[in-house]
Amino acid sequence: MKKFYRIGENLNVVTKVYGQAMKDRNAKPLQEIALKEAEAGVDFIDVNIGPARKGGDELMAWLVKAIQEVVPNIPLALDTSNIAAMEAGLKVHKGKAIINSIMARPERMDGMMPLVRKYDAYMIGLLWGPEGMPRDEHERGMLTAEILAKAAEYDIPNEDIWFDPIIAPLNIQQNQLMAGLEYMKMLQDMAPGAKSTCGLSNASNGVPDEIRPIINRTLVIMLQRHGMASAIVDAFDDDLAAVVAGKKPEAVKIVHDIMDGKSVDIPSMSKELQNYAKTARVIMGQVLFSDSWLEI
Fold first, then answer.
1. What is the CATH number of domain 5-248?
2. How is the chain split into domains, by residue range?
3. What is the pTM of this model?
4. Per-residue pLDDT tens over the stretch 20-56
């Protein structure tokens, strides 16, 4: 089974504690969460400072140094739309970082792609174009072609690009999740050797907290089946880590059976497997979304 890369999402400026720590230049809570993510076995740590319009370059450089001081062996995914802040972080980063992310818009590609080569970084190619979110897998394919053409201008190989099809919330855009899965089937034909990733937790935004994890775990099984190489995830979801490491084969088989339209006997399953089966049916659009589908 291919290695699946987990990118920990937990170090984020929108979290009250970490946002305040960044503002105060208080390294301790930020280093503590990075250490916990490392202990949870993530492959990269996403360092999200948001737009950081004022002083973003100084903040990112300080933050990268503070994090790598305590987790020197885990590379970072630098997450900001501020180009100067991105470069400041790459300048001090040890190892091969990920630029998270570069939208399929000319000004973003021309602003960020030179940094990919200059600092030998990976880049996440975000399939968000001039008109916003793509409507289906075909528009995602067109944006992929635009990113590839621009990357070729900057001599960026496919192997350094991680395409993000954009994951939408299940409760309002189920059709977009299916479009993302269809896109994943096409990606290797369009971009041989490229990787892929996504903000997995976006799928469960806006639903009750207790059902968020099962949505994320079920969707990642579906994405992995079509070649998804990584995801930006909750570092502390141990069951999700087990799923992507191939340690939950029964759950994977049931989700695959539902994807293939096979008949499955849900009442005969354990509660855990029932939850995977029911959630897969909702993602596939076989059952209407509701906050209580696991109880039905």
1. 3.20.20.20
2. 5-248
3. 0.97
4. 999 999 999 999 999 999 999 999 999 999 999 899 9
